[in-house]
């Protein structure tokens, strides 16, 4: 760089100062641009990271929604099975009561059958007794008839 002396020096001095100021400003601007470029790069990396996190969370959300649907289906099936079980329980109680009534009725019918068989046996015994009596009376009659015929 040349140093200018003389009357022109006073004239160029403001221009030189202005150029030096512009150089300093340009250097500061370059530094600022570099700083902002680094900041942009950092923000872009953060943005990419956030986008990946969003994608990951969306996938996880889809998986959880699928799991919720699956669990809701299982809950529905379990509730239906519980309702069916309760219905079977009620039906089982009804059938158990009916079985108990039928067993009681069978016991009563068995008792009546035993009583009827006993009465039938007694009637058979009486019939046998009366048949023997009738036979004896017929024999007596025959003897009487024979006696009267012989007379």
Automatic annotation (TrEMBL):
<protein>
    <submittedName>
        <fullName>Uncharacterized protein</fullName>
    </submittedName>
</protein>
<keyword id="KW-0175">Coiled coil</keyword>
<feature type="compositionally biased region" description="Basic and acidic residues">
    <location>
        <begin position="71"/>
        <end position="86"/>
    </location>
</feature>
<dbReference type="InterPro" id="IPR000533">
    <property type="entry name" value="Tropomyosin"/>
</dbReference>
<feature type="region of interest" description="Disordered">
    <location>
        <begin position="71"/>
        <end position="126"/>
    </location>
</feature>
<feature type="compositionally biased region" description="Basic and acidic residues">
    <location>
        <begin position="109"/>
        <end position="126"/>
    </location>
</feature>
<dbReference type="Pfam" id="PF00261">
    <property type="entry name" value="Tropomyosin"/>
</dbReference>
């Amino acid at each position: 760089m040349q140093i200018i002396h003389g009357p022109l020096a006073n004239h160029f001095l403001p221009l030189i100062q202005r150029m030096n100021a512009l150089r300093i400003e340009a250097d500061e601007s370059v530094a600022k641009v570099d700083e902002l470029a680094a900041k942009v790069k950092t923000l872009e990396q953060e943005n990419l990271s956030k986008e990946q996190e969003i994608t990951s969370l969306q996938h996880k959300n889809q998986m959880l929604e699928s799991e919720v649907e699956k669990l809701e289906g299982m809950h529905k099936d379990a509730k239906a099975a519980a309702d069916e079980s309760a219905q079977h329980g009620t039906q089982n109680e009804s059938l158990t009561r009916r079985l108990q009534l039928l067993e009681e009725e069978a016991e009563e019918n068995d008792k009546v059958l035993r009583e009827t068989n006993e009465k039938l046996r007694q009637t058979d015994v009486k019939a046998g007794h009366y048949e023997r009596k009738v036979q004896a009376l017929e024999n007596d009659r025959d003897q009487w008839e024979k006696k009267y015929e012989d007379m």
